[in-house]
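Protocol step 6 of 9: fold each sequence in the batch and record its structure tokens directly after the sequence line. For illustration, a two-sequence batch is reproduced in full.

Sequence one:
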Amino acid sequence: MGDADRYRWVALTLVALVACGVYANSLGNELVYDDRKLIPANEVMHDPWRLDRILAGRYWGEILHSHHYRPLTVWTLALNYRANESLGLPGAHAVGFHLVNVALHAGASCALLLLALRLGLALPAALAAALLFAAHPVHTEAVAFITGRAEPLAMVLGASFLLLHRRGKWIGAGALYGLSLLGKESAAAWLLVALWLDLCTSQPLKGRWRIYGGYAVVLVGWLFLRQSVLGPTDSQINALDNPLVDAALPERWLTAASVQFAYLRLLVWPLGLSSDYSHAQIPLVSGPLDGGAAGFLAAVLIAAAAAWRLRQRSPMVAFVVGSYAILAAPTSNFLVLVPTIMGERLIYAPSAVFCVLPGWGLWQLAQRRGRGIWAGGLVLLCTYAALTVARNATWADGESFHRAQIQSAPRSARAHLGMGRMHAEAGHLDSAEAYNRSALKIHPEYAMAWHNLGLVQVRQEAWDEARRSFGQAVALEPAYLKAWYNLGGVHLQRGAWLEALKAFEQMLVLDPENAGAWNGVGVVRIRQGKLNQAARAFRRALEAEPDHEQARHYLAQVRQRVRQR
């Protein structure tokens, strides 16, 4: 092994150690927020060898009718689940999931180092770029939050695809590109990054059209598979998550520009990070004089000018500028609307190429001003590492998550809703009611907030107020089964049998095999003295859900009363 290879292995080891070290304190975190929906509540996760179900299933399974198709990510989570069980742990035990996320981030950081070297950067510059990426606190959502796994997984595969592409390993590169697509949809952009890389390095494209044709076949095959599983793109984007769905086109583009400038600011100055940017944390931009939109336009012009000026002497700058734009575009809301207006996890891959610039810049300055420049780089690295370690605590447990969320996103209706849920679970009903009302003040058409307010009012035995809250929820979201069920329960408590029956029957219109609705109908029929109809309803509930204890209990009571007649 030569000195160059030895130094490269030392650098890879150092990058992996830093990437793992800054996330070591995340290993004890619990499943929080979407983790609890994605993993324990999703049956597809529980058997990694049912590949047919994984390949033919949505990312969220039946929990959420989303248009995400990420079977490779689901498979890795399912393997985690099975590994836990094989060790005698609960399948949803969090530590193994966190360990894999950290390992994937370390792999992505090492892949960036190798890619930077392949781009022609000197080892010190490539090492600086990879270390900054490994420690950058903007990545905490993608790494410390288990649900963010798709980001480092797609990054590892996408960067490895580029490496094999540069080495002329076309078949292996195509396979890795296909796997990256199965990890996350936005990985499709890596094909354009490969094309841009060849353009920036003056590679002859004429002889490579067959290669790109092969990659395109992989892309088309993935699109066909995704379409066959998801069908028509009929999933609605929630205006709460992405207010741009209701914005006019100029307002949408200006706001998207402001959001992109916010990403750039966080990459340079990562303070003010948040797990929530939903309505109304990010105000819509209506005019071009907005600081964020204007800042983004200025950044684009400066980056384009620098890339053009340095195109001959430093084509790497042009590659970084173009690749950042390509990787950020799929989730930018410029081209198509995505389910969220902003999320730090979405900047994971673009930040990798961004980190090449400060790494290259530190090396250039060190060449001119002396090695003392590296001391400044070390200070920056230590600052990033300290911020990352501190922010990992955001995902420590549910209480920490919601407290951090409302502190970082005080204008978010969802953050107030989360605090309301947490206070309700702790039995603090007055503060739970206050937080739900705060969510409704921010977003009056928030059906879930009306529903959760109704649940608090039920526990307060404020039946009329609860009836109004559940009524608002179903008026705003007519297919809200839980709200219909609880509305029926409130009517039962008030002795309004007909209103209760209407609520449960509406549930059956929406879901004819809903065991809870049939059970509710049976309870109403008991109150009305119609025991035969009650028995039929409870039998239907048990047909739909054989383990429904309440329906079984009531059916036994009804049979006993019928025999006593």
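Sequence two, same batch, same settings:
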Amino acid sequence: MADIKKRSEIEKSKTWAIEDIFATIEDWEKEFAALANDINVMGTFSGRLTESAQTLYDFFSTEEKLMIRIGNLRTYAMMYQDQDTGNSEASAMSERAMGLIVKANALVSFSEPQLLAAPDGLIEGFINEYEPLKEYKFEIEKILRMRAHTLDEAGEKLLAQAGEALATPRNVYTMLTNADLTFPEVSDGKGGKTKLSHSRFIPMLENPDRAVREEAYKAYYDTYKTIKNTTAASYAGLVKSRAFNAKVRGYESTLEASLYPLAIPLDVYTSLVDAMHDGVKYFNEYMDLRAKLLGVDKLRYYDLYVPLFEYDGMVTFEEARENIQKALAPLGEEYVRDSAHAFDDRWIDMCENQGKRSGAYCTGAYGVHPYILCSYQNTLDNMFTVSHELGHAMHTFYSSKNNGYFASHYSIFLAEVASTTNEMLMARYRIDNATCKEEKQYLLNHLLETMRTTMYRQTLFADFELRAHQAYANGTALTSDFLSNLYKQVNLEYYPTVEMDDYIPYEWSRIPHFYTAYYVYQYSTGIAAAVKFSSDIYNKVPGALEKYLGFLSAGGTKYPIDVLKDAGLDMTKPDTVRQALEFFKEILDELKATL
């Protein structure tokens, strides 16, 4: 690691301003000590939430103030740890902050049961009679909405006690695939061997040597075949636990149980799947082009990730900033001016250093500002990454600027919309200003692959997940053979022109997202919404920019479907997804025109 600098050797201007949260470690320690005592006040509200509107307001306002402080304490510790994971002091601080969060959550755990047990109309009456309490109206409504699916105190206690046992399938899968699974060595394409792993698998499929891709592909799934019965048993156990929870809580299905808390209509999920089936023809056309450009008679699953075009254009961080701000100009002067703070005021930790966490993310400290972690390497892909994370940052910035702490938290359903909107505008700007054919082709294909892997592939996953749960509900045993045959059938429907083999049917067993119920569909709806927003803004559709900025500022003030409806997108209908598919076709035609 001699060529990678230590954290202490990185220029301050290229690091994030963590001191904006706490000036020193000593200040963090003082706040930790104070909070460890201050949070105990929450226990004084136990049993009193229904005594008056004033008491209920005092509870939420006190909780809000404390959660802001705890959140900032945790964010600082996490950032301090991530900038150098070898720092034992930072690791200890992070663990202590998490412990404080656990303690705080335990101290307020009485609140939801008490509110749900209140006589009908009492809490609503409090809100109507006491104006200050209206600030927390939506937060309270979200709790009360769960009344129909909440058990009595004894039932909830029993389910809580069963929680650890019901989590066993996920824990078994995690340990099996991350700790116990061993992969063989395969050819590295350079005359040597390399040990296959989860992190090396996709890069191996990007190798231009087809023989290398094929060997890695077969070795990877041959390994999963050896544990097919165990992974099937763990997934079947998970589906059974979800079905059990849904049934005892009075839901009609596991899908309803997952979507109900955020008021996501079932039509959002099913219309996405239906629309994607209609759009298969566009992706077939892209697969045919991929086969042609790769010079193969029949496309195989190990041919889906290899880049079709090469472009080595370098982009310094300063050039990336210039490009990003020009690309985001359609979002208006205020947005560009506000986003400039990320670069000028050290919101971004941009350089690689020894021990720094890999990857990229955006986090936020309410009342301070967002932060972005990355390790910029002067590539086009890294520029897109910064643009993406800046989208998250500005969503957080405007949500926090315009709302209180609780209302500033937007849901996972909305989380990828702003980031992908930025990425789409970035792609469009660079395509329009490409300096050569090779760059334009690379960028167009980058956009196609983003949509294939983020929208199309994730909907395939969502389709499989729904069918598996429905099969169990109808009395089918989720054996390895059944799950593999089901996954094979779904792939035949989504990739009819790709040669089916004996390996891809086992892909379901390597997707960890399946262990978070009905999660993956949100990637698809998110990018579909981003295509709509970015296209309308790019094409200067009247009112589009104002609606989008309203979306960014709305945060979590409403249920996510309603936030999008206010911005002009009705995700209960297939229109937005279909428009995204048409956009995919337009980009595909644009790429073909360059050949």
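Proceed to step 7 once all outputs are recorded. Observation for sequence two: The first helix runs from residue 25 to 38.
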